[in-house]
Amino acid sequence: MSPPDTAASGVGASLPRLDAREKVTGRAQYIADMVRPNMLHAAIHASPAAHALITGYDTAEASAVPGVACVLTGDDFPDGRMGAFIKDEPAIAKGKVRYPGEPVAVVAAEDEETARRAAALIRVDYEDLPVAATPDDAMAPDAPVIHEDLPDYFKVFPAICGGNVASETELSEGDVDAAWAECDVIVEGEFETPAQAHLSIEPVGALAEVDADGRVTLWSANQSVFRVQANVCEALQLPMSKLRCLTPKVGAGFGNKMEPHVQPLVVQLALKTGRPVRLILNRTEDFETVRARHPFKIRCKTGAKRDGTLVARELSAILDCGAYGDDSPGVLGYSLLMSRGPYRIPHCRTSGKLVYTNRMRFGAFRGFGNPQVTFATESQIDEIAGRLGMDPLDLRVKNMMRPGDRWFGGGEVASNGLAECIEKASAASGWRQGRARAAPSGKRRALGVAACAHISGLLATGAIVRLLEDGSVVLNTGAVDIGQGSDTVLTQMCASALRVPADRVAIASPDTDGSPYNWGTTASRVTYTTGRSVVAAAGHVAEEIKRHAAEIFECAVGDLELRDGGRVGIKGVPDKELSYFEVSARAHWAAGGPIVGADTWVYNQPSVDPKRAIARGLPFPQIGVYSFGCMIAAVEIDETTGKADAVEVWSAMDVGRAINPGSVEGQIEGGFVQGMGFALTEEMVFDGPRLVNPSMMDYKAPTSLDAPFDIHSIIVEAAEPDGPFGAKGIGEIGLVPAPAAIGNAVAAATGARLRRLPLTPERVLNGLLESDSED
Amino acid sequence: MEFIRPDSIDAAVAALQAENAACLAGGATLVAMMNADLVAPERLVSLRDVAALRTAMRQPDGSVVIGAMRRHRETAEETDLRDGQRVLSDAAGQIANPPVRNMGTIGGSCAFADPAADYPPALAAADARIALVGAEGRRTLPADAFFVDWYETALEPGELIESVILPPAPAGTAGSYTKLARVAGDFAIASVALVLGMEGDACSHLAVAVGACGPAPVRRRDVETELLGGGLGDSEIRRLTDALADGLDPVDDVRASADYRRRVAPRLVRQAIAEAKQCLSGTQ
Amino acid sequence: MTGASITLKVNGADRPVAAVAPWTTLLTVLRDELGLTGAKRGCNQGVCGACTVTIDGEPVRSCLSLALNCTDCEIATVEGLAPAGSLAPVQQALAEGNALQCGFCTPGILIAAHALLRRNEPLSVDEVRAGLSGNLCRCSGYKKIVEAVVRASEARP
Ligand code: FES
Ligand code: FES
Hints:
The complex is a heterotrimer.
Chain A: H1 6-9, H2 20-24, E1 40-46, E2 52-58, H3 60-64, E3 68-73, E4 96-97, E5 103-109, H4 112-121, E6 123-128, H5 135-139, E7 165-173, H6 176-179, E8 185-193, E9 205-210, E10 216-220, H7 225-236, E11 243-246, H8 263-273, E12 277-280, H9 283-289, E13 296-304, E14 310-322, H10 328-337, E15 347-356, H11 370-388, H12 392-399, H13 418-429, E16 443-457, E17 460-467, E18 473-476, H14 486-498, E19 505-507, H15 526-553, E20 560-563, E21 567-570, E22 577-579, H16 580-589, E23 596-602, E24 613-616, E25 624-638, E26 644-654, H17 661-680, E27 686-687, E28 690-691, E29 710-716, H18 738-750, H19 761-774
Parallel strand pairs in A: 1-12, 10-11, 14-15, 18-19, 26-29
Antiparallel strand pairs in A: 1-5, 2-4, 2-6, 3-5, 7-15, 7-24, 8-13, 9-10, 9-12, 13-14, 16-25, 17-18, 17-23, 20-21, 21-22, 25-26, 27-28
Chain B: E1 2-4, H1 9-16, E2 21-24, H2 30-35, E3 43-46, E4 56-58, E5 64-67, H3 72-76, H4 86-92, H5 98-101, H6 106-112, H7 119-125, E6 129-134, E7 137-142, H8 143-146, E8 147-149, E9 152-153, E10 160-166, E11 174-180, E12 190-199, E13 202-211, H9 221-227, H10 234-247, H11 258-283
Parallel strand pairs in B: 1-3, 2-3
Antiparallel strand pairs in B: 4-5, 5-10, 6-7, 6-10, 8-9, 11-12, 12-13
Helix pairs in contact in B: 4-7, 10-11
Chain C: E1 4-10, E2 13-20, H1 26-33, E3 52-55, E4 58-61, E5 74-76, H2 89-96, H3 106-117, H4 125-131, H5 143-154
Parallel strand pairs in C: 1-5
Antiparallel strand pairs in C: 1-2, 3-4, 3-5
Helix pairs in contact in C: 2-5
Bound molecules: FE2/S2 (inorganic) cluster (2 copies).
One FE2/S2 (inorganic) cluster binds at residues 41-44, 46-51, 61, 63 of chain C.
């Protein structure tokens, strides 16, 4: 399926996924499809208790089941603790349990059925402790302490913590207190967003195999082989040299597979049994024990002058952390950084608390806190427009950040396509031409708009590009393609940089033994950060190729150019050229040695300028480059039931440069529908600490009939100066404005401003009837 | 666990005469529950090979007998269902999604009696009877008597559903099923099954059953009867919805609150009647 | 317990399977006994559609089908959509239309779509949306899948 020439398969081409054929034939192997010789199957025994001391185990009955090879409890695990920001989490509950569903014991047996049956026979004695099910409970003066050792835990940043507060962050600019006096209109409100399940269709799983020397190879559903390696080694106190992490195909992640799930459990079972062990969670376990989007409670206040100039914002957020820290401090910090939105608001004060509770851990989820705060802040932009009688789009245009403006906190923004996003979404949707098409009978219809920004960046990455003997290329980055298509996009970049067709570039599967470090497939970062490394590493290869050619042609390196099809020649002399085969063969067999280009770097532009802003407890000081977007959604509301449907959407997103436009559209479309689910139907419902809907029967994500077909992806390309071919990320931003755009449409259609997600038929109908009765 | 695949109704009934025996119809519900370890029958009696349960037939009097093993897709496409009987095909076509409609059967769905499922209100509005067969012989029950409580039916141990019998619907009546669900194919938050006949401006036939708002479908035959012969204007509909509202006994669950169900069910009834009237006047 | 020995007809071939317990689903047999891992287990509850296969030509949930109930049926999985080395038109359409991301839903979607295409006439967007409504995809937002299936229906003779 790969077209033959560089132009048709390189940067800018909507090249089909490299693994499309593998996937449409059903041959792609995911973790649950992997089998190793003599493999055992594992099952977990999960805690029924939310918060309790473990006072004893009885595993005799489980161990006696024929076919059971091994039963492990917390007593059989080392004392190590893992955690992306706060090292607070053991591989398995030790001494106490902190949420219902927490793994307490694991069984390995000859088959999965036996393992599950045995796991159910394990008896654990608990001494119940008082439960803190919500942040309010956990912050009460007499609240039970969930992590007694919090002060002693190792933290990767100067965390402000204490009691059940895992982290506190503040970020502000200007003088908010004084600024309110300048405002003619002030809106204030409390917003609430629920836990959302990632609901990758693939549940998580892992397979570990140990060699005769005790070195472990681990495959798992993951978003970073390197984070898996780090987490498992921390939790099990293993040297990293003793664990090699690999990846099969991954059935999507959305953040769920970034940090650990069951990997430490299978590694320990493999070490104890000496046999390969595979553990695949069932859907209920996946819901209950992995992670989900943080519930947020947000207080937000925004003020503007009569002419629409935004003056001040104050925002405070309480995040339910769940039982373990995971990525949560990052989510808190990032959500505050995003809470000014892409506007010029001179006075802004934001703060937040991340509170441990006895619920499942919450963690990274596409958008990383941004959809939650954007729902609040973009709702308030519309409220201000309403109060001032301004068009919501005009208010946004009046206040939007312009090229050269800095981000909240003072970070530089090198590319800004916001104006174009707003303009194009507005034009395509017909916003200014009467806005809403007529509603069908029995419905109300309105458009809603939201603008947003997001980053791509963070941390370390690398690439190795090797020229093979015949002149074809192998690219190795260590970045896990979780289905979003990074293997294809990175290959296209490498192909374009070396002017070869994409099918002449092979991409290596991530391997902690052989790949350069890559922090992970998260933070919309792979295209931008890893892409930069790919371009740099390919550049080194290009230099080497030219050096060889210069020696052969006896000319200066500067006189040489790469040509399409993998050739190097003298500029202006078309027939003076060599194939990469000729160059690479020389390098391999005669002179110079095989050609390898490598690059690594770590994102290092500061996000906060201490001269402009005050930041406390911000977990990552160097965040990334900024993308912008504007979404307009058409929503129809059934007047009988209040059910709101998004029927059409225009999503204009600034990606810097679309390396693969088809893939970019896929991210915009998929992001919207996941955000629409968050806005309209998805909610993890808790009864105290316990999740009451851990199944696809009870937790409802959109189907093909719920998602609108008319999702118009509008690609805006404000090139990032240091991005690879100008590119920035697109993985998350397409989701971020969806709840706000839909909420604004619902408000426009009904007159009711709903501040709590999801916008269920019940909430919408109640709002509609109330506002009708006020009219 | 034992697995039996009888090929006749008699053999199936015989096989069912055992402790903890269960009928396996389409599997859409039972196997899901087995997979989740919620049930573990000791004997599974698969009805797959019982050809007599797979047919649907229109009788000379216009009634239609639908075998228990008729799949939702077949019922959705059933041309033998006419006039008001279409309430059942309309409901069948709104169950879950195409692959599940290819598996699930009317007998299996009735036996499970999920109050939020689509068949119970449709059967109630159609005045359907459920035909049961057991070791003691056969009996038929009206739908109202069959759906007893939350997930509870009048089926006795050792009995199976043989068929569902829809009486003839008066010519010119219309049947419709209106469902509100969170997403396409989900169980109902609330639903309304309606069979309506109008002669000019006078109501000649009226049956309204509300689903998902209590342990069993809710109908108010008394008020329906009172409204016959009159015009079905706002005040008449109001009488009906008020009466229905009295009969609702909804719960709070993950799909919606009880309050909302009380609020929305009468609105759905009004909408269903308005649409049916419009559709009837269009065809007259 | 020891189960029954049965023969299943899968993708046109008779496949004997030993020791099948009554509760064993077709999905489990396909994946664990027959090495046909194209059908995926996303929920084991009949909701996600990743396990969709056809039985006697109709798409059904293999996670809700007991293997012992599937003897004397024709079972087809994604592996049987086209002979090795070639792609059925619907596979080609999804692959070329950027209509798959992680691919975990793809085998089930292909089976459901293939059944729709049997009608041999151009399909509308809404027909395809309805026809695929039992197959969840968390990645794509469905648009490109629907487009690809519509295109495949139009490309037919
Ligand atoms: S695994 Fe069968 S429908 Fe999800
Ligand atoms: S492509 Fe990932 S679930 Fe559909």
